[in-house]
Amino acid sequence: MSLPKTDWRIAILAVYALVVGFVMVSMGRPSEAGWFLMSIPFMLLALAPVALLCFGKRRATAKGVGAIVVAILGVAAYYHTAFIAAPDAQGGLVFLFAPLYQFMLAFVWLLAIWAIDRFRGKDPTDA
Questions:
Q1: How would residue 105 be classed by pLDDT, with cut points 50, 70 and 90?
Q2: The pTM is what?
Q3: Membrane-spanning residues where (predicted)?
C-alpha cells in the first residue's frame, strides 16, 4: 500500500498556518467569548497570500519558492510585532497590513514568473 502523493507546497501552507495561529493566540485574548469567531477572517486574510502561491499546477517549483519567501517575510513581521517590539495597542494591525504587503509581493512574483516564461518563449499557459 502506498501513501498518496501530496504537494510539498501544501506543507508550507500548513506550517505557515500553525505559526500564524500561534502568534494570533499569543497576541489575542482567546479567553473571551467571541475571540475565535472574530479571528477567523484575519486568519484567512493572513493565509491568502501564501495560499495564492501554493495552489495551481503550472510552474509549481517557482510558485513554491515564492510561497516560502512570502511566508518567511510574513512570519518575520508577525514574530517581530508579537515578541520583539514593545507592546502596543496597534500591534494587531499587523494582521491587516502584513497580508497586503504579502499580496503585493506574491503578485510581483507571479508577474515575474509570467515575464520569464514570455522571455524564454514558453507559453505561460503550458504546464
A1: very high
A2: 0.84
A3: 7-27, 33-55, 67-86, 92-116
